[in-house]
Design goal:
Blueprint lengths: L1 E4 L6 H10 L4 E4 L2 H6 L2 E4 L5 H10 L3 H9 L3 E5 L1 H4 L2 E4 L5 E2 L4 E7 L15 E6 L1 E2 L14 E6 L1 E5 L5 E6 L3 E8 L2 E4 L7 H12 L2
Parallel strand pairs: 1-2, 1-3, 3-4, 4-14, 5-7
Antiparallel strand pairs: 5-6, 7-11, 8-10, 9-12, 12-13, 13-14
């Protein structure tokens, strides 16, 4: 059973429908004990980093998420669920994250590059994945596959070895990571049509 964590900041219905479509057994989990009891875990999320971390702490979910990400079960973070895994975010100040992946979350900064005015924030819509390495969730996903993004911030890992894919938006940014059975995507697989369904199918079959 895949536990989809509900902490009030995720598009849970879309995630559950996509998992159902690929034949995966999934349900909403809201308590630490339910996270501990799940075979695999998905941490979705949309919205503000600081609010999300505050809610996770208030609901006593931080330690259970840490266990799920570290004990070899399949773990998938989506969008804000990717960013929360990192040490610190600079979204509207400086805020500590879960600290499961070394690195930071930073705003897109086009820094006066030629053509910078053409690049919008938030980065919203379809964009291509470039494989740095073929993580398990990308089985049968072609190089250059298009997926759906909505975000103004992106992650900057300290260890390049965790980078699974990169994407270009006014320069290269990390669009997904993989470390052991822990995966996380900046894009929304549940909104990425057949490519996204394949990614979720691969995750469910780990």
């Amino acid at each position: 059973m895949i536990g989809v964590i509900d902490y009030g900041m995720g598009n849970l219905h879309s995630v559950l429908k996509a998992l159902e479509h690929v034949g995966a057994e999934a349900r909403i989990v809201t308590k630490a004990a339910e996270i501990d009891g799940a075979d695999k875990v998905i941490l979705p999320g949309v919205g503000a980093f600081a609010e999300a971390m505050g809610t996770l702490r208030e609901r006593g979910l931080v330690e259970a998420i840490g266990r799920a990400a570290a004990d070899g079960r399949g773990f998938l973070g989506i969008c804000l669920g990717l960013q929360l895994l990192f040490d610190v975010s600079y979204e509207d100040g400086e805020h500590r994250g879960l600290g499961l992946i070394a690195g930071k979350v930073v705003r897109f900064d086009f820094g006066g590059r030629v053509g910078a005015g053409e690049w919008k924030i938030p980065h919203m819509g379809w964009n291509a994945l470039r494989m740095r390495r073929r993580a398990a969730i990308y089985r049968d996903v072609p190089e250059g596959a298009y997926v759906y993004f909505v975000h103004s911030y992106h992650v900057a890992p300290e260890d390049d070895g965790v980078i699974a894919t990169v994407t270009d938006h006014g320069g290269e940014f990390v669009s997904s990571i993989a470390r052991g059975n822990l995966f996380a995507t900046q894009f929304h697989p549940e909104k990425s049509q057949q490519v996204g369904l394949q990614i979720l199918r691969n995750f469910s079959e780990l």
